[in-house]
Amino acid sequence: MKSLLKGGEKNSALGGVLETLRCSPFRRGFALAPRDLRYTRGKGLNTIREHAYTFIRARLGPALPLNDGKQTPMKGHPVFVAQHATATCCRRCLQRWHGIERGRTLTEGEIEFIVDLIVAWILNCLTQGPEQPR
Predict the structure, then answer these.
(1) Looking at residue 68, what is its pLDDT?
(2) Suppose 93 and one of 23, 49, 80, 87 were both cysteines; which one would form an S-S bond, judging by CB atoms 3.0 to 4.6 Å apart?
(3) With contact defined as beta carbons under 8 Å apart, do 81 and 36 qualify?
(4) Contact indicator for 133, 82 with CB cutoff of 8 Å
């Protein structure tokens, strides 16, 4: 599970994607609820990253995911909220926002990118304080 980008290059690329997503009023409107922040702090980012890998592989990884477009709940886990905020919630959003084509299995590099983006968004929530959740 190695990232295609290294250190500062990776952070810069993810920061650019997050900045683009902030231009969308819909994506910008997501924030972690206090219970999600507590859960994330209690479990730690390594565990949250593992959860993200599990969810992405199962729910987005296949070429034709089950219930595509409806497979990611709006709440219930910090990763779910982050997926909506980062447009990694379904294959349609992955294609529209990140250029990852539908109809084929995700590569390990794509899964790594998606997980890195989710974790970067969650880390921003932890370090920049809460915004108003939807």
Answers:
(1) 87
(2) 87
(3) yes
(4) no
CA distance 120 to 114: 10
Of 73, 90, 71, 88, which Cα lies nearest the Cα of 122? 88
Give me the helix-helix angle, 34-43 and 78-85, nearest 10°: 110
Distance, in Å, from the CA atom of 66 to the CA atom of 8, rounded to the nearest integer, reads 36
Give one DSSP letter per residue of 15-59, joined into a string.
HHHHHHHHTSHHHHT----HHHHHHHHHH-HHHHHHHHHHHHHHH
User: First-to-last CA distance in the chain?
Assistant: 32
Residue pair 97/21 in contact by the 8 Å Cβ criterion: yes
pTM for this prediction? 0.85
* Residue type, position 82, single letter: A
- Cα(1)–Cα(15) distance, integer angstroms: 20
Cβ–Cβ < 8 Å for 60, 106: yes
Looking at per-residue pLDDT, the higher value among 41 and 67 belongs to: 41
